What we know:
Number of helices: 28
CATH architecture of the domain at 133-273: 3-Layer(aba) Sandwich
Mean pLDDT: 85
CATH topology of the domain at 133-273: Rossmann fold
CATH superfamily of the domain at 133-273: TolB, N-terminal domain
Shape: globular
Amino acid sequence: MSQKPSFFAELKRRNVFRAVALYAAGAWLLVQVATQVFPLFHVAEWVMRWIVVAASVGFPFAMLFSWFYEWTPQGLQLESEIPPNESITRHTGRKLDRWIIAILALAVVLLLTDRFVLRKDAGASAEKTAAADGEESVAVLPFVNMTADKQNEFFADGLSEEILNSLARIDGMRVIGRTSSFQFKGKTEDLRTIGEKLGAANILEGSVRREGDKARITAQLIRASDGIHLWSETYDRTLTDTLAVQVDIAEKVADVLNVVLDDQEHARMRSEGIKNVDAFIAYQKGLQIYADAHNPAKSQSVVVGLRLANKEFDRAIALEPGFSQAYFAAADLYDHILLADDQSQPEKLKAQQAGLHYLELAAANSHDEQQRLLTLADRQLISDDWHGLAANIKAALSHPGCSAPDWLPVFAGAFGYGELVEDLGARVNVCDPLNSINFNSRVRSALSSGQPQRALDILTASERARGGVAIASVFRVQALIMLGRVKEAEAQAAAIDPTNENYYKAQVFAGAAAGESPASIHARLASVDRSHSIYKMQGLTDAVEAVLSGDRAGADRRAAAIDAQPAGPFVLAVLTADSLHGAPFDLEATPNFKARLAESGLPWPPMSPIKLPNRTATNK
Length: 620
């Protein structure tokens, strides 16, 4: 009497395991293909969700089907109608095996394509996809002041920015950031060219004629590709009614572009805008002074310039206490005081306290969750408490949105967050494609995380965005050194203007990579005039020079002095990224930084992207 086969053996005989494997592989392949193809045709997300649900629901039915049916040479037949035949079972098994192999082969091709083609330079790919995205993209150009009073330009700029902010609060609307769109202020470039440079399908432009407490505001929406006017309107309002104008323009633009606003979005636009006209005028004045303070052609000291800017930011805050952007912009002054060599210890202590205060209020009043998280991470960097900093940095960089971070990317790459910084930077580049600070952040992060080719690619993209003009820079010097192209790095360093802020640093890196002795480098650069630096951060460059020279004692001595200053650990984190050479100092020399590091969860030591010839330690 033959023994009845076990249930497991029966499953195997009926090829249920093979059928289940085939179904699972096929369902996975279908989902992956749909995930990559559907976005190209703007297929709604609910379709993708239903495919996943259907694949999951179909799984038990596939098992039952494979139990009751067999794939024979005569086609599908009920198991109960097939006489026991080992050859038929083997035939079915071979068929299923071939299909499984075929699907797995397709899966491998898909994965390789995704890894090496679709995701190659993922940031650039995301930028191109989003930049080409539909008719919902719009750039708001600065409205033109139609009066002889230059002060009215600040009113026009403030109105333009508030319209931009109102549009940005609408879900489904991609709005180009202020930094990029305001670069076309006063220029007469063709709208098609502007649309291409900004990646915007539509351009909103207008004019303002302000006389006393009244203003005539004209706005028009134009399709960039062919110059067709989609909508225009003229408003005669008092200054107190400008908020209503901003919201009305945003609503009309959304309506023309077929973007539906719900009641919540209407309410948000009306409640979150700046309601005091003088507040956004003061803020625009502050932004102009802020930009000039960072411009070496217009500034002798960034700290002096930012103090002037903060008078306007503080005036805006006094008029509009919930003005998050004004708090955030004002905080930049205090970061620069903490980094500057020419500021006293008491000044740095006051700067730390003021910076914490302004960033706390910027975060508390922010209506953008991503910006709030980035602001809190920036705030924690200059604080004396780094508990949970690693998790906070990850959360801030990973949060959806395209707000540009401030100081965070300067050192985040050195501590293992290079990919997150680049992912965020690529998103920012979509909505703010001419933002030079974002380009610099991405380059610095790529360098400190050991991605020199990525850094060069970003530099090239930045130059292309500026009109194709190549500019010699310390970043290119560092990237070329990492790639082993030392002669090119030396030539690049030599091409930098000696009055440039980073000329000295570029020469130090190039000389060290070429094997020049530390004493020779130092002597050769002794005549370089560094007094014209607007940032007054020579101390950091000197510390980097000590690191690259193999002067560990000198590096420790400089790091210890920084560590003893208010927010010293923040400055040492910047030094760590700047040196590109692993741990630039011994933790025992920097007890405050060591304590903050232990609290933070950040890794130590950081990676060392730049490899230099062996040095004989020397003290200077």
